[in-house]
Amino acid sequence: MKKPLILILILLLAYSQSTFSSAPAKTSKVQNVMIAPAELAKMMESAKETVYYDIRPYIEYSIFHAPKSINMPMRYLNNRIDEVKKYNQIVIIANDEKEAALAAQMIRAKYPDKRVRILSGGVDSWVKSGLPIQNELPHGC
């Protein structure tokens, strides 16, 4: 009695694996637009109506950060999401692209018309490119 039951369970498991694993992955309608560190540095010199959110935890931001970046830790982003509505473009600076993509997704969920860009290679790519960093915190932090 156990053998037929085990066989049925194995067949059901195999069928469900093949059925669900072949389903196409759900993709976002809007692709993340990556920005290279050098391009971001140039943008920071002239872009208006753009905000640069460093979503790393405050302690990491306080050690060093890109000039003009504002600390918006990932854990607070959802509560402060309405702050982005006054900007046309948002650039996400993070430790890695995966974390930045999650932040971009959160922003686009509420503001699909906003242009959200991600620093390619994360904050390490900024440092490795030899671009300026700051460790001074904005007044009031």
What can be said about this structure in brief?
This protein is α/β, with parallel strands linked by helices and 141 residues long. It is built from six helices and five strands. The protein has a five-stranded parallel β-sheet.
Would you give an account of this structure?
It is a single chain. With 141 residues, the protein is of the alpha/beta class. The chain has a domain at 33-128: Oxidized Rhodanese, domain 1. Helix content is 43%, strand content 15%. The chain has six helices and five strands. The chain has helices spanning 2-21, 37-46, 58-63, 74-77, 97-110, 122-128, and strands at 33-35, 50-54, 69-71, 89-93, 115-119. The protein has a five-stranded parallel β-sheet. The longest helix has 20 residues, at 2-21. The radius of gyration is 21 Å and the shape is globular. The termini are far apart. The relative contact order is 0.18. Residues 18-28 have low confidence and may be disordered. Residues 1-23 form the signal peptide. Keywords: Signal, Transferase. One of its GO terms (molecular function) is transferase activity. It comes from Seleniivibrio woodruffii. Residues 46-135 form the Rhodanese domain.
> Span between N and C termini?
70 Å
The level of helicity is 40-55%
CATH class of the domain at 33-128: Alpha Beta
CATH topology type of the domain at 33-128: Oxidized Rhodanese, domain 1
Broad structural category: alpha/beta
Uncertain spans = 18-28
* Fraction of residues in β-strands: 5-15%
User: In order across it, which strands form the biggest sheet?
Assistant: 1-5-4-2-3
What is the radius of gyration? Answer: 21 Å
Mean pLDDT: 84
What's the CATH H-level homologous superfamily of the domain at 33-128? Rhodanese-like domain
Number of helices: 6
